[in-house]
């Protein structure tokens, strides 16, 4: 009898998990549950969730191939299909950024190819669209799933392995009170915001997504005779104006050219990090920072000198890194940075300090799970922001749209600092923002700070909660120097306690073949696991763990 595997969710993580599973030489019975009616597109790329103008923040060259590369898939589409996707055939390039809905079409195509491939290899694959998993319960000999069917009836299924690839968790009702939105998704909800003052909390890609959605409801972007992007407001949108706001009041930088695959670091290497991990110590952050400092100084001595790198610490790096941008107007900086990024792309020139930080973030991420609670807090509060800013650059077109809105008089950016208040109670619509003794009311207000880290208490499956098999991640407590051999004391800090294959860690005599591959629950200890590249890595780890287990059990049966 074939091993039964359930995959919950058909976004990128579920798709890359399926890619690994269909490579199994042992036949599997794979059931795929998807709450939406069209499996394979994934929430971040679904047309019902995203505005067609929203751009993805991953270039084609960075997207791990599934059955084929994105550009290969685009090239073999008909002219009619490309026209429907609003893509010029001559503009298909490896370093191009495409709309989110285009990636959704690509992912769905790859998903269906994987299903056919798996079936041709002898796997039984059953896709259950519009089936929402309502509960998961572990048993001694398997895992039970309760599912709400399209006709609102319920069914129960039993599996040997279950993969939670549920991805992002966006609220179903985002307008909590008139004009106050707690998420920019689903984007169509924001289309109702017309001819009003709008406040957007967040200036990163999520904030830009919200901005572009509202902007296209109040006007249109177009190319003028010189090819420059401009914005034309609708005739009845005189009151439409957006203020984007964040603590620093800065905008993300434009995507920068660099060599892919990455060139290996010299000092901050995997071997160096593994050497620190091998010591068994938990107070490692300052040692990691020293490796970071050596790598950055060697990669770009002039930049290192300009920010005074030799005298910086974990706590003072971010202020030095952001200082120049904070002291420039956000749009002046954005325009200069865009011009530099476009020139560097044309010349295939890499800014070495940016590239060094980009290459180090995945290496340094290896140390995070072993940090004690004090260093973990220091990392999240001080160090992480530099890496996130460096790798969360945005498409050049996104910056061009921001500048077009500025020229049209429809956009400004506000620095909130650390002392501000957002009040939704004393206004009829939207929210009022108080900063530096001044209060400004916005008829519509959108919280676009993105997907937040979730913890064990947020698991949406009641039986797992009742069984107590999902608990907050354990972190070693920072203490003064202890006597040699004294045991570590752990504290719960957040996220979910998982093993290396993303399985919950518990002592009960229950199945340990549940895999938590939902990114929102991993951010606490794996802070950089966002985007499609992380989905590929997680899907690969989970599928290998399942195949290794199935292969071992199959061999055992043959021996018997």
TrEMBL record:
Pfam families associated with the record: NAD_binding_9
Domain of life, source organism: Bacteria
FAD-dependent urate hydroxylase HpyO/Asp monooxygenase CreE-like FAD/NAD(P)-binding domain sequence ranges: 6-168
Protein name from the UniProt record: Putative NAD(P)/FAD-binding protein YdhS
């Amino acid at each position: 009898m074939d091993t039964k595997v359930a995959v919950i969710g058909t976004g990128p993580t579920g798709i890359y998990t399926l890619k690994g599973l269909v490579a199994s030489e042992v036949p599997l019975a794979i059931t795929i549950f998807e709450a939406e009616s069209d499996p394979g597109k994934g929430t971040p790329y679904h047309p019902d969730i995203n505005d067609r103008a929203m751009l993805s923040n991953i270039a084609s060259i960075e997207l791990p191939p599934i059955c084929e590369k994105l550009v290969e898939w685009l090239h073999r589409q008909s002219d009619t299909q490309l026209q429907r996707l609003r893509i010029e055939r001559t503009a298909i390039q490896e370093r191009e950024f495409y709309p989110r809905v285009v990636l959704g079409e690509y992912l769905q195509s790859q998903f269906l190819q994987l299903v056919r491939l798996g079936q041709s290899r002898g796997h039984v694959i059953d896709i259950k669209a519009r089936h929402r998993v309502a509960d998961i319960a572990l048993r001694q000999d398997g895992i039970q799933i309760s599912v709400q069917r399209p006709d609102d009836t319920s069914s129960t299924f039993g599996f040997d392995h279950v993969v939670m690839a549920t991805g992002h968790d966006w609220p179903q009702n985002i307008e909590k009170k008139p004009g106050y939105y707690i998420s920019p998704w689903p984007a169509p909800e924001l289309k109702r915001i017309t001819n009003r003052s709008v406040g957007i909390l967040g200036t990163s890609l999520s904030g830009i997504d919200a901005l572009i959605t509202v902007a296209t409801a109040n006007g249109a972007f177009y190319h003028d005779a010189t090819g420059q992007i401009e914005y034309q407001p609708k005739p009845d949108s005189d009151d439409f104006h957006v203020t984007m706001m964040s603590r620093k009041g800065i905008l993300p930088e434009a995507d920068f050219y660099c060599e892919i695959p990455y060139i290996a670091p010299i000092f901050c290497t995997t071997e160096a990090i593994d050497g620190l991990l091998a010591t068994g110590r938990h107070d490692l952050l300052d040692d990691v920072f020293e490796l970071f400092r050596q790598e950055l100084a060697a990669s770009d001595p002039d930049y290192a000198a300009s920010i005074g790198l030799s005298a910086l610490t974990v706590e003072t790096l971010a202020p030095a890194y952001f200082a120049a941008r904070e002291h420039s107007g956000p749009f002046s900086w954005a325009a200069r940075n865009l011009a530099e990024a476009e020139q560097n792309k044309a010349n295939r020139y890499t800014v070495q300090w940016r590239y060094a930080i980009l290459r180090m973030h995945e290496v340094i991420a290896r140390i995070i799970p072993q940090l004690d609670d004090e260093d973990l807090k220091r990392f999240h509060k001080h160090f992480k922001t530099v890496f996130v800013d460096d790798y969360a650059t945005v498409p050049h077109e996104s910056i061009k749209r921001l500048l077009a809105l500025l020229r049209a008089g429809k956009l400004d950016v506000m620095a909130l600092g650390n002392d501000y208040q957002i009040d939704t109670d004393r206004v009829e619509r939207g929210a009022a923002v108080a900063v530096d003794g001044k209060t400004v009311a916005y008829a519509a207000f959108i919280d676009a700070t993105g997907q937040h880290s979730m913890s064990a208490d947020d698991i949406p499956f009641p039986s797992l909660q009742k069984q107590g098999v999902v608990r907050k991640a354990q972190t070693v407590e920072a203490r003064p120097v202890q006597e040699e051999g004294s045991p570590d004391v752990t504290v719960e800090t957040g996220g979910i306690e998982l093993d290396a294959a993303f399985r919950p860690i518990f002592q009960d005599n229950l199945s340990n073949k549940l895999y938590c591959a939902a990114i929102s629950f991993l951010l606490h200890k794996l802070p950089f696991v966002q985007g499609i590249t992380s989905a590929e890595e997680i899907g690969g780890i989970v599928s290998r763990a399942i195949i290794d287990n199935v292969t071992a059990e199959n061999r055992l049966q043959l021996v018997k």
